[in-house]
Amino acid sequence: MQYSSQAVAKPYFIAAIGLFTGQVLFGLIMGLQYVIGDFLFPAIPFNVARMVHTNLLIVWLLFGFMGAAYYMIPEETETELYSPKLALLMFWVFLVAGAATILGYLLVPYATLAKFTGNDILETMGREFLEQPLLTKIGIVVVALVFLFNLTMTLLKGRKTSISLVLMIGLWGLAVFFLFSFYNPHNLVLDKYFWWWVVHLWVEGVWELILGSLLAFVLIKVTGVDREVIEKWLYVIITMTLVTGIIGTGHHYFWIGTPEYWQWWGSVFSALEPIPFFAMTVFAFNMVNRRRREHPNKAATLWALGTGVMSFLGAGVWGFLHTLAPVNYYTHGTQITAAHGHMAFYGAYAMVVLCIISYAMPILRGRAANSEKSQVLEMWSFWLMTIAMVFITLFLTAAGILQVWLQRYSSTPIPFMAAQDQVAIFYWLREGAGVMFLIGLLIYIASFFVSGETKAKAA
Amino acid sequence: MSGTFTKSMARNIFYGGTVFFALLFLALTFDSMQAIPKRDNHANLTPSVIAGKKVWEVNNCIGCHTLMGEGAYFAPELGNVYKRRGPEFIKAWIQSQPTGTPGRRQMPNFHLTEQQLNDLVEFLKYSSEINTANWPPNIEG
Ligand code: HEM
Ligand code: HEM
Ligand SMILES: [Fe+2]
Fold it and tell me: Which residue of B has its CA nearest to A257?
C-alpha cells in the first residue's frame, strides 16, 4: 500500500462481501418460492424477499465502488485522501442505514414502513429497485455527496489521470441520476419514463464508466502496459458506451405509452450497445497478452478477463437477444428479462467489484498477492460462481422461451399461472445452479482465511 | 490504435460525442413530453386513480407482478387485468388472499378498506386504457 489512507477501502470491501452473501441467500429463498409457492409464507412473502435481494445487490455494489474509489484515487492522484476520517464515518452511516432498511423490509409490513418513514410527505416508494423509504433515499444522497466531496478534494490537490477522471465522472453521474428516484409523478407514463433515468442510465450509462476505469486500473497494475495505451482504450470504450447507451434508453420506451418512434430509436441505438462490451473483452485480453511483467496475483488477472467475457455475454449478447422491438414485443417482462438481468449484473458489476477486491485486498493486508493455496481456492470460486451463473441464465432463458410460446405466441395462449406450472422443471434446475453459486461464494470467502506461504511484501 | 490516434483525440471525441448524444436525447425527451398526452389517458387521472396508485405503491404490488411488462415475474401482468377480469373479480380476489392452497404461490392479504379497493381498481382501469402500442400480445398478458 503506497498511501496509508487507502486502508479505508478495507471495511467497504468486507461489507460488500457480507451483503453479497445475504443477497444470494434471499435469491435462493425466492428461487424455492418459484416452485414451492408457500415456502416461508407468510413470514417472508416473495415481494419482501425480492426487495431484500435486489436492494442488497445495489448496496453491496455501491460499497464495492466506494471501496474501489477510496483505494484507487490516492494511488492515481499520488496524494493521501482528503479525509480518511470522513470516509470511515460514512462507512458506518451507510452500513447502519442499509441494515436498518433491510430489517424494516423484513420486520414491518411495507405499508406501515411507508407510513412511518415519510412516504406521505413525498411519495417515492413502491417502485422496482427504488423501494427504499424516503429517509433511506435521503441517507444515500448524503453519503454519496460526502463521498464525492472527499474524493473530489483529493483529486483537486493531486495528479489528474484519465482513469481517475473517468471514475469521478461515473460516480458523480451515479449520484445525479439517483435524484430522479425522488420524482414520482401521478401520471404512470411519466413515472415510468423517468424511472428508467435511474435504472437504465445507471447500468448502461454512468456505471459503465466506473466499470471501465476499475478494469483499466487493475490492468495497468497486473500487466504493466503503458498507461497511455490503456487510457486511450478507456476513452474509446466509454465513448461508444454513451454514444449508444444514452439514446439506447429507448429500448424501454416501446410499450409504456410513449411515442412509437422510440421503437426505431431504441432498437437501433441499443443494438449497438454490445460494441463497447465487446471492446472491453478485446481490451482485457489484449493487455494481458502484451503484459510486461508477471504479476504474482493470478486471481486478479482471471477476474479481469472474466469481467470482460461475462459482461459481453450478459449485457451484450443476452441484451441484444431481446432488444429489438419486434422481439421485445413478445419477451418484455418475462423470464428472458430475468435471465439477462442476472448475467449482466453478475458479469459486469459483481465481477468487476470482485476483481478490484481480488487485486487490492492482499495489498491492504500487507502482501503483493495471496499465497498459492489461497489463490487456487479463489480461482475455484471464480469458476464455480461463473459457471453457475451461466447455467442460471440458460435455465431462465429456456423457461422464458417456453413462457413466451405458451402464454403469448401460440394460437391458443394459456394463462400466466398455467404457463408457470408447465416450465417448473427449469425453475428447479435454476435453484440447483443457485446452490452451486452459493458453494462458490462460500469457497470465495474461505479463500480469505487460508494462509500458506505468501509472496513478497507489497511495494 | 495506431500511433497517430492519440489519447487526447480519444478524450475529445468522448466529450464531444457524449454532449451531442445527450442533447439529442433531451430533444427526443422534449418531443415525447409533447406527444405523450395523446396516449397516456391523463383525462382519467382522477383523485381516485391517484389514490389507487398510492395503494399500489405502498403495498409493493410491483414486487410480484408486472405492470405494462415492468416489475417482477412471479405473478401475472396487471396492466391489462381490468380487461381480463373486470372490477368485481379483482376486488373479490384481493380480499380472498391468501388462498392457502398447499404448494401454490401465495399472495398476502393487505387488509385494504373498501375505499382502497375501489381506488386500486380505478388505477388498474386507468392503466389498462393507456395506449401501449398494442402490448401485450393477447389478453393473458
Ligand atoms: C451491464 C449492463 C446491463 C445490466 C446490468 C442490465 C440489467 C438489466 C435489468 C436488471 C433489466 C430488467 C429491468 C426491470 O426489472 O424491468 C434489464 C432490462 C433490459 N435490458 Fe439490460 N442490462 C445491461 C445492459 C443491456 C444491454 C447492453 C442491452 C442491449 C443490448 C440490454 C437490453 C435490455 C432490454 C431490452 C431490457 C428490457 C427487457 C424487457 O422488456 O423486459 N441491457 N437489463
Ligand atoms: C444464486 C442464486 C440466485 C437466485 C436463485 C436468484 C433468484 C432470483 C429471483 C427468483 C428473482 C426474482 C425474479 C422475479 O421477479 O420473478 C431475482 C431477481 C434478480 N436477481 Fe437474482 N438470484 C440469484 C443470484 C443473483 C446474483 C448473483 C445477482 C447479481 C449479481 C442477481 C441479480 C438479480 C437481479 C438484478 C434481479 C432483478 C431482475 C429483473 O428485474 O429482471 N441475482 N433473482
Ligand atoms: Fe436498458
Answer: B132
